[in-house]
């Protein structure tokens, strides 16, 4: 199915890894990323997570999958590859893979999204709560 493409799936900490079990078990080119650092790849696919900002900051070969037809991801403005439904997924994915002009997008807006919470939203929220509960200020 993937041919020579390796697929790295970086899950949200609360994601259900079992949803990808068949894909991982049936294909040696598919792995679940368990590393702490953001994986380096030739291209990325994401939706509305701020993780997409990090991917876009690395490469313009980042596809945004729109979760709901009437809700535009804030990251769509930074990508040439937006998939609005499952029917257009293959076409947009193929376009992204064959794109020749790959570049980093170092816009200040992306930098703000990508690096403001270096520890990630979950760890940052935990730190804020801990500081507050210990009587500190944020």
Describe this protein's structure.
The structure is a single chain. This protein is of the alpha/beta class and 138 residues long. It has one domain (37-133). The chain has 5 helices and 5 strands. The chain has a 3-stranded parallel β-sheet, sandwiched between helices. It has a two-stranded parallel ribbon with strand order 1-2. The protein is globular. The model has no long low-confidence stretch (mean pLDDT 79).
Task: Output the helix-strand order.
Answer: EHEEHEEHHH
Number of strands: 5
What is the multimeric organization of the chains shown? Answer: single chain
In total, the number of domains comes to: 1
- Please tell me how large the radius of gyration is: 17 Å
Task: Give short descriptive properties of this protein.
138 residues; alpha/beta; 3-stranded parallel sheet; two-stranded parallel sheet; 5 helices; 5 strands; 35% helix; 12% strand; globular
Structure summary:
This protein is 35% helix and 12% strand.
SSE blueprint:
Blueprint: E1 7-9, H1 21-26, E2 30-32, E3 44-46, H2 51-58, E4 62-65, E5 81-83, H3 86-98, H4 108-115, H5 121-133
Parallel strand pairs: 1-2, 3-4, 4-5
Helix pairs in contact: 2-4
């Amino acid at each position: 199915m993937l041919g020579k493409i390796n697929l790295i799936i970086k899950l949200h900490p609360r994601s259900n890894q079992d949803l990808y079990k068949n894909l991982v078990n049936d294909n040696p080119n598919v792995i679940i990323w368990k590393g702490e650092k953001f994986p380096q790849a030739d291209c990325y696919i994401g939706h509305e997570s701020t993780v997409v900002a990090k991917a876009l900051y690395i490469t313009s070969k980042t596809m945004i999958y729109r979760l709901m037809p009437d809700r535009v991801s804030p990251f769509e403005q930074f990508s040439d590859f937006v998939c609005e439904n499952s029917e257009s997924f293959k076409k947009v994915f193929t376009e992204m893979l064959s794109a020749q002009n790959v570049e980093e997008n170092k816009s200040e807006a992306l930098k703000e999204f990508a690096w403001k919470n270096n520890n990630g939203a979950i760890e940052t929220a935990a730190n804020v709560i801990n500081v507050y509960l210990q009587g500190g200020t944020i």
